[in-house]
Design goal:
By secondary structure, the protein is mainly α. Helices cover 79% and strands 0% of the residues. Helix 3 (39-52) runs antiparallel to helix 4.
Length: 109
């Protein structure tokens, strides 16, 4: 909340070094990178999370969001579908997947 991003990043760097199998440290660092505007580093950390916990729906949602922002609609839709395989009741994810699906259908006609 205090926007001490550099200190938080240092802390999370140490956490990933000391406990590399702790997926949530990678996920928190991915979120911080995203908040700081570094989508590439965020995506790299998301990939680390998913190597450790393939069903981490927060990381999958982050991936889908970044892919959508990058205009990678087909990949984003696949990520949302993967998310919904794990957490099918999430209305926001359902809406995001539906909107991407409709957008892609419109692009193909």
């Amino acid at each position: 909340n205090e926007k001490r991003n550099a200190a938080a990043l240092d802390f999370l760097d140490q956490a990933t070094l000391l406990q590399p199998d702790f997926a949530e440290a990678w996920n928190r660092r991915a979120g911080l990178h995203y908040a700081m505007g570094n989508r590439r580093k965020s995506m790299a950390d998301i990939n680390e999370v998913l190597q450790r916990q393939p069903r981490h729906f927060g990381a999958i949602a982050g991936m889908a969001t970044i892919l959508t922002e990058a205009g990678e609609d087909e990949l984003a839709l696949r990520a949302w579908q993967r998310y919904l395989d794990i957490y099918p009741a999430d209305r926001d994810a359902q809406k995001a997947a539906m909107e991407l699906s409709e957008k892609l259908a419109g692009n193909r006609t």
